[in-house]
Amino acid sequence: MSTLDFTITFHTGFRVATGNARDGLDDTVNADDPLPASTLKGLMRAAARTLLPPDGTTDHPLVVAVFGDRHHPSPWNWSSADFADPPTRHPRAHVAIDPETGTAARDMLRFAEEHWATTATFDVLRTGPLPAEDADRHRMLLAAAGCAVHALGSDRRRGLGWVTVTCPDRPPTHADIDRLLNLRTAETPA
């Protein structure tokens, strides 16, 4: 079996919300699993869809082959993030601004928890059958998709969750980018 290891460097706090509230907090995070495998896989799938866009409502065949779908399980398994130092949790206040007045909107203050960390690692392990001729293309897309993730968690488009992801095992090359660009237009079986 083969594994790809990834390193995440955090530039801001991040929040993968639980959807649950508790005393004094409108939204909380999971202290036991701050960055779960399902979140990492979803982020990488979204990045892969940007690299190899769907044809209408159908994902690119290589994206389906790597990440799976309802009818085809993925031959890869994601781990949750393993943090170099335990992340710390902090509350953050969020205020909605009234667009008419530019002031805080009435009754729109909420408190949400977030994590702060420096670095973490995760891996993607091949656990299913994969023809040898497809292994390199899968690894290429996984590495490129991982490195294309620059934000994670809630509010990632509002200044939270900014990251750099690297794949020391297989850093994407210029040749990989050319292959991906060629795959965007070619009908290639996964």
Secondary structure elements and pairings:
Layout: E1 3-10, H1 37-51, H2 61-67, E2 76-78, E3 82-83, E4 88-97, E5 104-116, E6 119-126, H3 132-147, E7 163-166, H4 174-185
Antiparallel strand pairs: 1-6, 1-7, 2-6, 3-6, 4-5
Explain the overall architecture:
With 190 residues, this protein is of the alpha+beta class. The chain has a single domain, classed as Alpha-Beta Plaits (2-Layer Sandwich), CATH 3.30.70. It has four helices and seven strands, in the order E-H-H-E-E-E-E-E-H-E-H. The chain has helices at residues 37-51, 61-67, 132-147, 174-185, and strands at 3-10, 76-78, 82-83, 88-97, 104-116, 119-126, 163-166. Strands 1, 2, 3, 6 and 7 form a five-stranded antiparallel β-sheet that branches. A two-stranded antiparallel ribbon has the order 4-5. Helix 1 packs across helix 3 and helix 2 packs across helix 3 (132-147). It is globular and about 60 Å long. Part of the Csm effector complex that includes Cas10, Csm2, Csm3, Csm4 and Csm5. Residues 25-163 form the CRISPR type III-associated protein domain. Keywords: Antiviral defense. It holds the Pfam family RAMPs. This is CRISPR type III-associated protein domain-containing protein.
